[in-house]
Amino acid sequence: MNWQEPKTPTEIRSFLGLAGYYRRFIENFSRIAAPLTSLTKKKVKFVWGPKQQESFDILKQKLSNAPVLTLPEGKVIAYASRQLKVHEKNYTTHDLELGAVVFALKLWRHYLYGIKFVIYSDHKSLQHLFNQKELNMRQRHWMETLNDYDCEIRYHPGKANVVADALSRKERVKPIRINAKSIEVKNNLIERLLAAQREAVLEANYPKEKLGVTEEQLTLSKDGILQLNGRIWVPIYGGLRDVLLQEAHSSKYSVHPGADKMYQDLKANYWWIGLKKSVAAYVAKCLTCAQVKAEHQKPSGLLQQPELPEWKWECVTMDFITKLPKTRKGNDTIWVIVDRLTKSAHFLPIKETYSSDMLA
């Protein structure tokens, strides 16, 4: 398939939408697609890495080599899987296995309801489920679902199902963590900061700088840089503010964050009077953001939510339904009046020729 690697979360959703249509014929679909699904979540930075590339390539290969659909005869005709929700990760093994059975029953209800069938599970205790006397609330709820079906649960040893057993017990390699603070960035930023701060503290430049704090409130770091509460003071001199704004928004290491996200990132390490205002102005002038990013705010104009009234019939809305067949009295229009607080409505028959003075 000539499907290029997704560049945005929207493109990932588009690809997963296509692949998800055929998920019944792709074994372990949820596990394969997990690295891609994680990039579509909110507040997750879009970073395309080896795991995402591998997941993308595997799904393309699976889609282009779909299994031949045949009559059952002991062969797999469909797969089903999904990722665990946050609260489900705390379930016991017994509940996870039982939950998987219930998930399959709900998914293929249109095939299984009304017929007798056998469920094979590698969790031995499930075969005695219908004879258990003590069940928790979650298990009782699932038992109500199971009682709707004519099914029998049988034990199938995991070792007999060598493929699934090997995959489920495969050891996951722990990723190597790298502390970003240990990376040494070789540039002249420190020298430029020192030079700019020395120029800013000159008595002649005080009126222009507008520190907003006294010089005693500033502290010296190990590099001799003036800081305020652990954040580096960036003077107006030296053009360093523009450098930092460009680095935080438009460099190859950033992804054009919004004003709020960019402000929080810069505020953690840097400080100057009007930092938030500078960030907002820089983002507003970014041509790339203006061309690519969608508008998420309410449309300007009159399309705003009006205030709720305090009393019934204090504020009403009205509309007219016209061009209706005439009644015996010659009425051809319905005047609809709705109270905004109680939503109670009145429907009055009138003539389309009535003026506003007559209606008042």
Automatic annotation (TrEMBL):
Spans through the membrane: none
Keywords per UniProt: Endonuclease, Hydrolase, Nuclease, Nucleotidyltransferase, RNA-directed DNA polymerase, Transferase
Domain Reverse transcriptase RNase H-like: 74-149
InterPro entries per the UniProt record, alphabetical: DNA/RNA_pol_sf, Integrase_H2C2, Retrovirus_Pol_polyprotein, Rev_trsase/Diguanyl_cyclase, RNaseH-like_sf, RNaseH_sf, RT_RNaseH
Integrase zinc-binding domain sequence ranges: 240-294
One MF annotation (Gene Ontology) recorded for this entry: RNA-directed DNA polymerase activity
Name under which the protein is recorded: Nucleotidyltransferase, Ribonuclease H
EC number: 2.7.7.-, 3.1.26.4
